[in-house]
Design brief:
Chain B: Pfam families: PAPS_reduct. Chain B: This is Sulfate adenylyltransferase subunit 2. Chain B: InterPro entries: PAPS_reduct_dom (IPR002500), Rossmann-like_a/b/a_fold (IPR014729), SO4_adenylTrfase_ssu (IPR011784), Sulfate_adenylyltrnsfr_sub2 (IPR050128). The complex is a heterodimer of chains A (415) and B (301). Chain A is of the alpha+beta class. Chain A has three domains: 214 residues, P-loop containing nucleotide triphosphate hydrolases (Rossmann fold, 3-Layer(aba) Sandwich), CATH 3.40.50.300; 84 residues, Elongation Factor Tu (Ef-tu), domain 3 (Beta Barrel); 104 residues, Elongation Factor Tu (Ef-tu), domain 3 (Beta Barrel), CATH 2.40.30. Chain A has eight helices and 23 strands. In chain A, helix 4 packs parallel to helix 5. Helices cover 31% and strands 16% of the residues of chain B. In chain B, the strands form two sheets. Chain B has a six-stranded mixed β-sheet with strand order 4-3-2-5-7-6, with helices on both faces. Chain B has a four-stranded antiparallel β-sheet with strand order 9-8-10-11, with no helix packed on it. Chain B has two domains: 192 residues, Rossmann fold, CATH 3.40.50.620; 79 residues, no CATH class. In chain B, helix 1 crosses helix 2. Classes of the chains: A alpha+beta (415), B alpha/beta (301). At the A-B interface, helix 2, helix 3, strand 2, helix 4 and strand 7 of A face strand 1, helix 1, helix 2 and helix 6 of B.
Chain lengths: 415, 301
């Protein structure tokens, strides 16, 4: 079954958790014991409606403070698809979580409170989803019940948001507006009788018809080698298989490939998934590839098609989303993990900070603090084999790892 | 030869990728094996990840001593058939050594005692990655768990200080003494697991299918009447019922459900129609709203 990962973004009290709870409830995905717990807690709190946000707010601290503080994953499925929702918080200080949630998603829902309209936070949510090149974005204009389901209000917000869209870098992003009330259930799963002026799909209807091409960015085939399989058994004495996932495009038996960094050429002999042989390894599948020639390939190396080489370089400039409480400064060294390939990277220059609300850039920045987004130039101790993020979402991204704490401290998108 | 791999379940692709990252990034991984359907699924995925080579790490069972006999039989057969290494460590030993105290009373269970035995075993073998079958859909606190989840040298989970996981990239860098819990089927739901077992024709212990069992009722749940393991009041009447188990944990805290689903197809159908969550039959989670989170902080799976 098809799996669609969706990121959500909204400000505090925009009703994000309620929207997810509503999706679960109306698709009958909430089990009776969970529903019972929600009913019980809602009653204890003295609410006269069901507080669906209780279905998703997982950690004790969150339940105490009544806010979502980390990425939570929520699952539900329909006849056509399995859905995974990354519930990411909307506070200013949690850009890091939003970037994280969006990085694994193919679609995003941005919530807007119909009473408040497009606010500064909305700029940020849109900026991040655009930066991460999420192909399909749904703008859910929520709490329509509190503005009497006003078409005028809806159109005003749509017009304001369209202003914002003028500023985006990634123009091919598909954007859909839907007027909803998560609390009351209008246009989430079921069509609302309160918005006769809205002729579009409900939120779920929209998600249901999205297909592979609508949500997955394409590129050119890149095969980073994760692991070399050498069984050393009687039956598979000379077997040498390169295990990995195919990104961007497909690879087939007989394809001429180049191994990087050695630039040795060979031909794909067999493609295995478990004990089955396949003609073609499709995009995003985990396979094991054998080559016609006995060449030296190890973890971190990459197989690509001949005449289709990525950039092989020891320096580049990238847009960085900084995620650590310790600052990034010029001269700092980090482990740079590009897919499954690790090298050492030194910060050469911080070119400028990018305000994630479309208010421009700041020059002369000496350090990046948590949640900053900036253009940074790096120098590496060894070359990596990359594409620009615009051309290849997977092969154009990397993470930075602190050499002391071993924590993931930043994400990068190569320019 | 088959045409292309496009119809392969994306969740399988993801799990295989995770298994290969574990084998590549860690010195001494281990697969935590309970004999339950999730860990059996993990074994199949690991086979797929490394074929035609053998699974490059051992399995470890933290044995509460309160097992369903069917799962132990099954475990031993599987290990033999696949020629795997199996390590067993016993909660009973931790009790005998005075490291943990057996719980008493009506809801006594050895489930939370497993943590000590597990942490001791990790230290004994110097495991740096423990692969488990936990899924994010099981429970609210699990929904926030990372795929690579770092534990400090006390085995503890710091839920507020988790590493962000971006794109497919898994950061397994740790210091000596730390270990990583790895969850390859994080993104699977209960139905995904059952559908996979059906599609792959994976054998699972017989207690997952409907059978007649001596049981008694408590708190609206059906318990196996095994007087040695499961505490029973005198007025709790034993009766034969047609039941099956949806999860297989410590016998003293795993309740059965009434069911006539006696093969995989009817089980999948039952799960599809079910309105009760899987862990609804696990009394260990019912202790308080934050039960799982607390156990996880202490080093539970």
């Amino acid at each position: 079954m098809e799996v669609l990962k969706i990121a959500t973004a909204g400000s505090v009290d925009d009703g994000k958790s309620t929207l997810i709870g509503r999706l679960l409830y109306d698709t009958k995905s909430l089990t009776s014991d969970k529903l019972e717990a929600i009913e019980k807690t809602s009653k204890q709190k003295g609410y006269d409606y069901l507080d669906f946000s209780l279905a998703t707010d997982g950690l004790v601290a969150e339940r105490e403070q009544g806010i979502t503080i980390d990425v939570a994953h929520i699952y539900f499925s329909t006849q056509t698809k399995s859905y995974i929702i990354a519930d990411t918080p909307g506070h200013v200080e949690y850009t890091r979580n939003m970037v994280t949630g969006a990085s694994t998603s193919q679609a995003a829902i941005i919530l807007i409170d119909a009473r408040k309209g497009v606010i500064e936070q909305t700029n940020r949510h849109f900026f991040i989803n655009n930066l991460l090149r999420i192909k399909d974005v749904i703008v859910a204009i929520n709490k329509m019940d509190l503005v009497d389901f006003s078409e005028e209000k809806y159109n005003q917000i749509k017009a304001d948001f369209s202003q914002l869209m003028q500023k985006r870098d990634y123009k091919d992003q598909n954007i859909t507006f839907i007027p909803v009330s998560a609390l009351k259930g209008d246009n989430v799963v079921n069509k609302s009788i309160n918005t006769p002026w809205y002729k579009g799909q409900t939120l779920l209807e929209h998600l249901e018809v999205l297909n592979h091409d609508d949500v997955f960015n394409t590129g050119t085939p890149r095969f980073p080698v994760q692991y070399v399989i050498r069984p050393k058994t009687e039956q598979f004495h000379d077997f040498r298989g390169y295990a990995g996932k195919v990104y961007g495009g497909q690879l087939s038996v007989g394809d001429q490939v180049v191994a990087l960094p050695s630039k040795t050429t060979s031909t794909i002999k067999d493609i295995y998934v478990y004990d089955q042989k396949y003609e073609t390894a499709s995009r995003r599948s985990s396979v094991t590839i054998t080559l016609e020639d006995d060449i030296n390939v190890s973890r971190g190396d990459m197989l690509v098609k001949v005449n289709d080489l990525p950039t092989i370089d020891k320096q580049f400039t990238a847009t960085i989303s900084w995620m650590d409480s310790q600052s990034l400064r010029t001269g700092n060294k980090y482990v740079l993990q590009h897919g499954v390939h690790k090298v050492l990277a030194r910060v050469e220059t911080i070119n400028h900070k990018i305000n994630p609300d479309y208010s421009g850039v700041e020059d002369n920045v000496s350090a990046l603090t948590m949640n900053d987004i900036a253009s940074v130039s790096f120098k590496l101790n060894k070359a990596i084999y990359y594409d620009s993020f615009i051309k290849h979402r997977t092969n154009g991204s990397f993470i930075l790892i602190d050499t002391q704490s071993n924590n993931t401290v930043g994400a990068g998108f190569i320019q | 030869m088959k045409k292309d791999t496009s119809t392969i379940n994306p969740l399988e692709n993801e799990a295989i990728y995770i298994f290969r990252e574990v084998a590549a990034q860690f010195e001494k991984p281990v697969l935590l094996f309970s004999g339950g359907k999730d860990s059996i699924t993990l074994v199949r995925l690991a086979q797929k990840a490394f074929y035609p080579a053998k699974i490059p790490f051992p399995l470890m069972h933290i044995d509460t001593g309160h097992n369903f006999p069917e799962t132990i039989e099954f475990r031993d057969r599987l290990v033999k058939e696949l020629d795997l290494e199996l390590i067993v460590r016993h909660v009973q030993d931790s009790i005998d050594e005075g490291k943990v105290k057996e719980e008493s009373g009506k809801y006594a269970s050895r489930n939370s005692l497993q943590t000590t035995t597990l942490l001791d075993a990790i230290e004994e073998f110097k495991f740096d990655a423990c692969i488990g079958g936990a899924r994010r859909d099981e429970e609210k606190a699990r929904a926030k768990e990372r795929i690579f989840s770092v534990r400090d040298d006390f085995g503890q989970w710091d839920e507020k200080n988790q590493r962000p996981e971006l794109f497919d990239m898994l950061n397994g860098q740790i210091e000596l003494g730390q270990n990583v819990r790895v969850f390859p089927i994080s993104n699977w739901t209960e139905l995904d697991v059952w559908s996979y077992i059906q599609k792959e024709n994976i054998e699972i212990p017989s207690i997952y299918f409907a059978h007649t069992r001596a049981t008694f009722l408590r708190d609206g749940l059906i318990w196996s009447a095994d007087d040695e393991v499961v505490y029973r009041e005198e007025d709790e009447v034993v009766e034969n019922r047609l039941v099956r188990f949806r999860t297989v944990g410590d016998m003293s805290c795993t309740a059965a459900v009434l069911s006539d689903a006696d093969d995989i197809a009817t089980v999948v159908q039952e799960i599809k129609n079910s309105t009760i969550s899987e862990r609804g039959a696990r009394i260990d989670d019912k202790r308080s709203e934050a039960a799982m989170e607390k156990r996880k902080q202490q080093g539970y799976f």
